[in-house]
Each structure stands twice: as structure tokens, then as C-alpha cells.
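Protein record
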Amino acid sequence: MAFDPVTDGRYRDPATSDNWMADHRARVALEESGRLERKQQELLQQTCERSTPAERIRVWERRHGLTLPRDTNHRLLNIVARQTDLALAQVREEQQRRLGRIDADVAVVMADESTGST
């Protein structure tokens, strides 16, 4: 009987060990298959014509772990447009919509601060 580092030297029935390994491999393969399926679904959603430009861009942001740049001439805008099947003008419209919302939020906070309300 050989020392098994997985079991800390305790005896394990080889038939049980083999089944455990096969189950583990199957579970890992199933998880990987699920990850690939989700990735493919996100890729389809990122370019789906039924999705709005805002939805497509949000999917792109989630997939890449980035946010849409605020600079209207940023090089990344062309990449976002190409990978979401949007026109550059559509990406810039979403960018301006977001910037307008941010500006409006800042104006509200500043107005609240000047009146003393919270």
C-alpha cells in the first residue's frame, strides 16, 4: 500500500477513488461547458439587433471589465462600436446620454448642498 497525499496516507478503495475522480472530471467539464455557453450567449447578446445600444454596451463592459470612456475621441469607442455591431455615432449617443445623466446628478447634489437639504 503506497502513501496517497490526497488522503494523507489513509487507505482508500481504488474503485471509490476512480469513481470520485471521474465524478470530479465530469463536474469540471460540466462547469466549463456552462461557462462557455454563458460566454457565447453574452457574445450573441452583445451584437443582437433586438438589444438596445445601451444594453449591448453594458454587455461589452461586463465582458471586458471596462466602462465606456468619457472622452468623445477615445480610441476605445471604435472598438466598442465594432464589437457591438453599432455605428460609432450610436456609441457616442450612449456616451452623451450617460454624461448628461452624470451632469444632472451632480447638479442635483450641488443644489441640495447649497440649500442645505439632503
Remarks:
- Helices lie at 14-47, 53-64, 76-84, 88-115.
- The chain is about 70% helix and 0% strand.
